Amino acid sequence: MTEHTPTPWKTEGGTSDAPDPRWQIFTKNIILALTCGGNDEANADFIVLAANAHAPLVAACEKHKETYIDTFGEDMWLQYYADIEAALNLAKEQS
């Protein structure tokens, strides 16, 4: 899997040279995407929020999981671990 463009990502509205300028998602001087449709600004903000939060959320889940396994053992919180593990696997698979 290739690496994504490093964060932080940002949004900016209506300044593109695109034929139908909408909200840009960018980092430094690189435009990563343009949103279009009825919820341009909200969609762009959500994409940027998710991208910028991804690495810290994965790290927090991994730390939390390790802490609980070390403290309580896997059997006591089995379903809790399963939920965290599923979320981590999905996040890592899509990163």
Protein model, in words:
This protein is α+β, with helices and mostly antiparallel strands. It has one domain. Strands 1-2-3 form a three-stranded antiparallel beta sheet, with helices on one face. A hairpin with a 2-residue loop joins strand 2 and strand 3. Helix 1 crosses helix 2. The longest helix has 33 residues. The protein is elongated, with a radius of gyration of 18 Å. The relative contact order is 0.13.
What's the arrangement of secondary structure elements?
Layout: E1 10-13, E2 23-27, E3 30-35, H1 40-72, H2 78-93
Antiparallel strand pairs: 1-2, 2-3
Helix pairs in contact: 1-2
Summarize the structure.
The chain is of the alpha+beta class and 95 residues long.
Q: How much strand?
A: 15-25%
**Mean pLDDT score, rounded?**
79
Largest sheet, order of strands side by side? 1-2-3
Largest sheet: 3 strands, antiparallel
Shape: elongated
Structural class: alpha+beta
Number of helices: 2
Radius of gyration: 18 Å
Task: Give the oligomeric state.
Answer: single chain
Features:
95 residues; alpha+beta; three-stranded antiparallel beta sheet; 2 helices; 3 strands
